[in-house]
Amino acid sequence: MTSVTTPAAPTAVGTRLRAAAGRWALSAAGVGGVLALWWVGGSATRYVPPIGEVAGELPHFLGQSSTWVAVGTTTQRVLWSLAVALVLGTAAAWVMRRDGFWSRVTASLTAFAIAVPSTVAALLALYLFRRDPLGVYAVVTFICFPFVATMLRQGMRELDRNIGEMSDVYGLSGTARARHVVLPQLVPYVFAATRNEYAHAWKVVVLAELFIVNSGMGYEFSQAFDHFLLTEVLLWLLVFVAILLAGEYLVFRTIERYVLSWRVL
Amino acid sequence: MRGTVPASGPADGDPYLELRGVTVKHADRTVVSGIDLALRPGEFVALLGPSGCGKSSLLHVLAGLAPVAGGALRHRGDEATDGLRGRVRVGYVFQDHRLLPWRTVGQNIEIAMKAAGVPAAEWDERIERFLGMLRVAEYRGSWPMRLSGGQRQRVSIARALAVEPDVVLMDEPFSGLDEVTGRAMRQELTRLHEVASVPTLFVTHSIREALFLADRVVILSHGPARVLKTLDVPLARPRRHEDPALARLEAETVADVLREWDLTEGPAS
Lengths: 265, 269
Ligand SMILES: Nc1ncnc2c1ncn2[C@@H]1O[C@H](COP(=O)(O)OP(=O)(O)OP(=O)(O)O)[C@@H](O)[C@H]1O
Ligand SMILES: [Mg+2]
Description:
The complex is a heterodimer. Chain A has helices at residues 8-44, 51-63, 65-96, 101-115, 118-129, 134-157, 161-169, 174-212, 216-226, 230-259. Chain A is mostly helical. The longest helix of chain A is centred in the last third of the chain and has 39 residues, at 174-212. In chain B, helix 2 (105-116) crosses helix 3 (120-133), helix 3 (120-133) packs across helix 4 (149-162) and helix 6 (207-213) crosses helix 7 (244-262). Chain B is globular, with a radius of gyration of 18 Å. By secondary structure, chain B is an alpha/beta fold. In chain B, the strands form two sheets. Chain B has a six-stranded mixed sheet with strand order 6-7-8-3-9-10, with helices on both faces. A four-stranded antiparallel sheet of chain B has the order 2-1-4-5, covered by helices on one side. Chain B has helices spanning 55-63, 105-116, 120-133, 149-162, 179-196, 207-213, 244-262; strands at 17-26, 29-39, 44-48, 70-75, 78-79, 90-93, 167-171, 200-204, 216-220, 227-232. Chain B has a domain at 99-165. The chains are: A mainly alpha, B alpha/beta. Residues 55-56, 95, 171 of chain B line the site of magnesium ion.
């Protein structure tokens, strides 16, 4: 067509911007679709509160301190459980990184833990811990750690052999090797594990709170549900979704862009 | 073939590195069979062999990254069959660049220098000097993935030289470069070697490159590699790419090598 050659850099920037705009448009379309469904559902049935009513309640709901207490309690449970799951999962992955007796033992325990449904884990915790909030932490940790272990084991087994040889020749050992050679290769796996299990932990914590304690978002959910306060159920659902999306878009994507910036195209 | 030994390269005393009947295997397959070779202090030896004959495998073994399947290695007269690694400081240019992609070019060199015990005060100057020598100074702050293949390879050469190596192993370091850049790099490498005299083993399958750079060229057979012949390069230094004597020598060697490399199944010489 035309013989005009565009300089490389602006094209690249333009492509990237367009790609970013495309991603945001898709996300917006997704949210819009959900709202549209809700709108239809709200006007067609009696049990789904109309969108306008829920939106009207939102400011009051967010102004209550009890809302934020519940959010804070649950957030704290998620973060601590996730942290412990990451530590335990890393330890298990370390044991499983090479074949051997303990590796096989840990692998079968991990496989077993993955197979236990969250509901069963929550009921077991109820027996073990009674109504102690510790049970909530235990359930979330127990459900999340085997996934972390599996993911990190894969990372540890796929360490680059060629880079390893280079490090041997140049005498990279100890902390220098951990810092410059091993950890950077594990970062993408740790990252994937954290981001997946963050979302997973939020889903599990609500369930565990519903069974075990009388505080936190899960408990509030069940209370609202038991009293047929469907508007409130939806308000909690909105908060829940907002927290998950904020984690993904504001926290994880930002960190990822920074930490994995060497993977340039 | 020719007997004139160049004035450089002291030949007395124990060789820096000596291979006696070194055999290398990958699983059960022999890829290098019974190599005898001596690298003298300060000497530049080129290993010339056809693709797949086992050159990279041999360098791996010399560095200590893979075990010797037969024969022995000696370093300055001492038994060193498990390779040079850990014994002396090795500057190794792998056939692929093997940079850490998650560290910048400058950091890659710095990490290697730090591990080698080069004083921190010298890092900056050394990075500048060697990147400059290899014409990649402007990429010091770049991620390796942003560089071309040839540029990465040059950074990996800079890393090998910056660690103050006691011995240098290079595996086809210039094979990815264009003719002009390649010449400039070879020129720089000889200049550096004249100053520093670090014993160097240089793998290549370019006959001209081997003759231009080396004091001695060891010609290997098709795999599993044997030494077909050793050639003392009778060219005075400094050498020039345009030197007609180099071209003549190249033509002779090509004729020789072609005969040898064609007769792969022939009896050992
Ligand atoms: N990791 C490995 N496992 C099994 N066989 C291997 C391995 N690496 C190399 N080989 C085999 O060993 C032989 C020698 O390989 P090597 O890489 O040493 O050759 P080379 O002389 O360096 O070749 P080139 O000039 O193409 O780099 C080849 O036949 C190759 O198939
Ligand atoms: Mg090779």
